[in-house]
Amino acid sequence: MGVTQTQVAVTAKPPEIPVVRIESHRRWLALDLGELWAYRDLVYFFIWRDIKVRYKQTVMGAAWAILQPVLTMLVFSLFFGRLAKIPSQGLPYPIFYYSALLPWMYFASAMQGATNIVVENQRVITKIYFPRVVLPISSVLSGLLDFSISFAVFLVLMAYYRMVPTSAVIWLPLFTLLAVLTALGVGLWLSALNAMYRDVRYVVPFLVQFWMFASPVVYPSSLVPAKWRWLYGLNPMAGVIEGFRWALTGHGQPPGILVAASSAAVVLLVLSGLVYYHAVEGTIADVV
What we know:
By secondary structure, the protein is mainly alpha-helical. The chain has helices at 33-38, 40-55, 64-83, 93-120, 122-125, 134-142, 144-160, 172-196, 200-213, 229-232, 236-249, 256-287. The protein is built from 12 helices and no strands. The protein is globular, with a radius of gyration of 25 Å. It starts with 32 loop residues before the first helix and ends with a helix.
C-alpha cells in the first residue's frame, strides 16, 4: 500500500517594517528630551570629533589650553594690577585674574565654536535627519576639556600661594552649570543667525571683546554702585565670574543679587535661544 506524502507550503510572514514619521512640531518650544537622549551617541561623536580637530596637527597640542589663560593672566596682572592698581579684593593678582579667566575663556571659546558649528556641518545637515540642536550642544560641551585642563593649572596656582578652598567651593558646580547654559543660550542664537546671515561670524570677535570689558574680568563687581548691581547682573557672565571668584577663593561676600539676576537672564537666554533655533530649524538645510 503506497503512502501519499502531502507537502504543505508554508509561507513565512514577512517581518514588519517600522514606520518613522517625520513631521514638523507645532509647539512654540519643541525640545524633545527623549529624542536628544536617543541621539546621545551622536552628541558624543560630535564632541570627540571637535576635540580631535582642535588638536590635530598642532605642535603644542593641549598645551594651548594652558598657555592662553596663563599668558593673559600675566598681562592682566602686570598692566591692570601692578600698573593700574585695580582693586583685587585682597587676592594676589594672578589668583584674582585667573579665577575670572577660567569661566570667561570657556564661554568665549564655546560661543565662537557654536557660532560656526551649523555652517561647518552643512554636508551632514543636508543628507540625514537628526535633531539640529545636537550641534550647538556638542560644541558647547566639547569646550569643557580645555576648561578642565585650565582648572588643573589654577589648583597649582592656589598651592603656590598657599591658599586653601573654603566651604564656598560647594557652589562651584552651580556656577559651572550657569557658564555652560550661558554659552548654550548665546550659541543657539548665534549658530542660527550665522546660518541665515554669514556676516554674523565677523561680529563675534568684536562681541567677545566688548563682552569681556562689560564683565568683571579685569575689575571686581564691587566697583559697580550697589543700586545698579541688579542691572549689571543682567549680564549673565557677571554673576558667573563673580561666583567663580567667590567659590574658588572664599573672598568677598556671596554675590547674591548679582547671581540671582544673572540666573534669570540665563533662563531667558536659553529659552529664547531654543525658540529662535526651532523657528529657523526647518529652513537651515535650505539656506546653509
